[in-house]
Design a protein that fits this description.
The protein has seven helices and nine strands; from the N terminus they run ααββαβαβααββαβββ. The chain is α/β, with parallel strands linked by helices. Helix 2 crosses helix 4.
Length: 237
């Protein structure tokens, strides 16, 4: 269970995530230390930046709780590790929002990889880009990360196929076909999915040679926005 105790620094927040068993991978821990959460929240929420909880970023969106980011990094630790890949790593972050998780993945693949964050709300495209410029400008300057405006259900063809696709909005009607198409064989997608029972689960899927996803349920989640809504609202990262 995550503590909601306020911590004074980004390092102490990361230390808390480690001590509570939310994350173990050393490269992922290092990346979290390099992306300071205070640069990715609204000015009015700066004093709460190191709480382990989601924070609103406007437009009915949030930056997710740090323990959720940590959990996702553990799921993707091998997929985002350049030392384990022969080719440059390509990543798509659907619903990039604050830009925080896009930046963390950018740090992890920065040796020769690329991360595209796609966001449907223009103001959040600006917000996320500005946050990365302030917090981790080298990712933009070196072309490691970029934020684009678009419908995340359709993916982003220009940088496909992807080793990793991360989705921050809940899929009620299954994983969008365009995202499956743009995933490499052996690539991994992490996405919240709502079942017919109404319950939501974080799922991790691996694309097999036949083009299908082999998925596993990681944990239950509660997400307000869905990737299937006519207006693509996302729970941002």
């Amino acid at each position: 269970m995550s503590s909601w105790t306020k911590k004074p620094t980004n390092d102490s927040l990361v230390d808390q995530l480690v001590s509570e068993g939310n994350i173990e991978d050393e490269k992922s821990i290092s990346a979290l230390r390099k992306v300071d959460r205070k640069f990715y929240v609204l000015e009015k929420n700066k004093s709460s930046a190191y709480f382990d909880r989601p924070l609103g970023i406007g437009h009915e969106a949030t930056i997710s709780a740090p323990h959720m980011h940590a959990m996702t990094l553990e799921l993707l630790k091998d997929d985002l590790n350049p030392d384990l890949k022969e080719e440059p790593i390509s990543v798509l972050d659907v619903g990039s929002g604050s830009g925080f998780f896009t930046a963390v993945m950018g740090v992890l693949v920065s040796r020769n990889g690329k991360v595209v964050g796609i966001e449907h709300i223009p103001k959040l495209v600006e917000f996320g880009s500005s946050n990365i410029k302030n917090g981790n400008p080298e990712l933009l300057e070196k072309g490691i990360v970029k934020i684009v405006e678009g419908d995340g259900r359709l993916g982003y063809e220009e940088n496909a196929p992807y080793d990793v696709i991360h989705v921050g909005a809940c899929a009620k009607n299954g994983v969008p076909e365009k995202l499956i198409e743009q995933l490499k064989v052996g690539g991994k997608i992490v996405i919240p999915v709502e079942k017919s029972t109404g319950r939501q689960y974080l799922e991790c899927g691996i694309k097999k040679k036949n083009g299908k996803l082999e998925t596993s349920q990681i944990c239950g989640v509660r997400i307000s926005f869905t990737i299937d809504s006519p207006i693509f609202k996302v729970r941002c990262n």
